[in-house]
């Protein structure tokens, strides 16, 4: 299934509707779609490097809007969909304890790490943020920084270094994501405890 979705998104990258597809995938990736927008973004930037920052803008804006949609799902649809299931299984108290343990700092850290590295997946963090009623303004600002930072940095690297950079990132993506995650955790820990 994932391979078919991946192939489908790559076909869109070569389409004349590629920018619209990038916007759509970036939007739904932040709330429901299983593949990151990078599968469209990277081939599109490599094919048209002169459009790198335009594509970064499209991906950033639509990703943030998709994140807001995910926040709304978590905030407004939780009682309709998830709470009845929790009650049926007798897990409401356990879930409420988890929800109470999720503070602002944790959500901010999750937003930054998922925005930059997809760890944990952005859709999980956006829905959780709405579920715990995380401040929507702070949510939007952090999503702009994280998602915009990711897409603009990636656009700059791909425009400047092209295909060798894309191959390097693809081969070592897990390591790069782990380094970024560790750096963010160190910065967060330093800010929190110093």
Automatic annotation (TrEMBL):
Coiled coil: none annotated. It comes from the Bacteria. The keyword Zinc does not apply. The chain crosses the membrane at residues 52-78, 131-153, 173-191. Keywords: Membrane, Transmembrane, Transmembrane helix. One of its GO terms (cellular component) is plasma membrane. The keyword Transmembrane helix applies. InterPro entries: DedA_domain (IPR051311). This is DedA family protein. The lineage of its organism: Bacteria, Pseudomonadati, Pseudomonadota, Alphaproteobacteria, Rhodobacterales.
């Amino acid at each position: 299934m994932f391979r078919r979705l991946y192939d489908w998104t790559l076909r869109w990258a070569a389409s004349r509707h590629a920018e619209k597809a990038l916007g759509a995938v970036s939007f739904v990736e932040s709330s429901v779609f299983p593949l990151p927008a990078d599968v469209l973004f990277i081939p599109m930037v490599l094919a048209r490097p002169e459009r790198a920052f335009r594509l970064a803008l499209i991906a950033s804006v639509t990703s943030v809007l998709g994140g807001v949609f995910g926040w709304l799902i978590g905030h407004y649809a939780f009682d309709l969909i998830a709470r009845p299931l929790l009650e049926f299984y007798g897990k409401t108290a356990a879930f409420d304890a988890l929800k109470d343990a999720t503070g602002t700092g944790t959500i901010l850290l999750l937003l930054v790490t998922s925005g930059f590295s997809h760890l944990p997946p952005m859709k999980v963090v956006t829905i959780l943020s709405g579920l715990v009623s995380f401040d929507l303004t702070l949510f939007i600002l952090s999503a702009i920084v994280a998602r915009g930072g990711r897409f603009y940095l990636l656009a700059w690297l791909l425009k400047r270094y092209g295909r060798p950079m894309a191959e390097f990132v693809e081969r070592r993506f897990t390591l790069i994501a782990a380094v970024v995650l560790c750096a963010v955790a160190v910065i967060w820990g330093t800010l929190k405890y110093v």
